[in-house]
Amino acid sequence: MKRVSLKFLRSLTIVRAVALIFVVALVIMSFVSVWLPSFDPYTQNVTNRFAGLGESGYLLGSDEVGRDVFARLLQGISVELIIAVSATTLAMMGGTLLGLFSGVYPRLGELLLMRVVDVILSFPPVIIALLATTIYGHSNITLTLVLSFLFVPNFGRVVYGQVLSVAPLEYVDASRVFGAGMLTRIFTVILPNCLAPIIVQFTVIIAAAILLESGLSFLGLGVAPPDPSLGAMVATAQRYMGAHPEQLLIPGAVLSLMILSFGILGDFLRDLLDPRT
Prior knowledge:
- By secondary structure, this protein is mostly helical.
- It is built from 11 helices and no strands.
- The two termini are about 15 Å apart.
């Protein structure tokens, strides 16, 4: 435990600490705000449209129809995180199972994982997401399922490579000698030794999912109105950026910092969990 604590402190630089604090603060603020009646992202007040920062009780001003920008920002962060984490979790589950069984059965893995995954990865994710959301509608459930499908190959390839390096090791053969069945060896011997790269990949894919979801919302195919989304807020604010640039800069800055913070956390977890470091 002491050795792990020292490694944690050595890996936790100032930038990584700021990123960790920023992510934790965003999660707490966005989910706590849902239970506070004073934060209403839907109520319109046209008489107070485009209120400045701190004017008329609006901490970050109001938008083109008088809605509280701060409340919509917190709600948008909450929606972004729910969709991104849900999609990444589904992708991790599907990709991990695919990578495990493909690595244990290499011939099947070469055909199923490498070839099918290569076909999926050959198409830009935005094109597939645009096609799916256009056909099935831009509900939050559809968006989550589309994102999870797009990121399954990322987890599958990582797990597949780890299994190929772990499966030939002596302790896996020892478990077989002591009578462990195939499923037991996969889920109790091989999988625990693949968790570190899976955890790192999880944080990286969350950042990618946030970026892709916000891009779809910017195009009008992401989160369905009237639910706020950071991408949709940026898309709407660009029409008024000449007179009210803060309407675009605030959600754009928060979105950029979210993606950057999750990327930094992924780098931090890689240094923390990689036994070679």
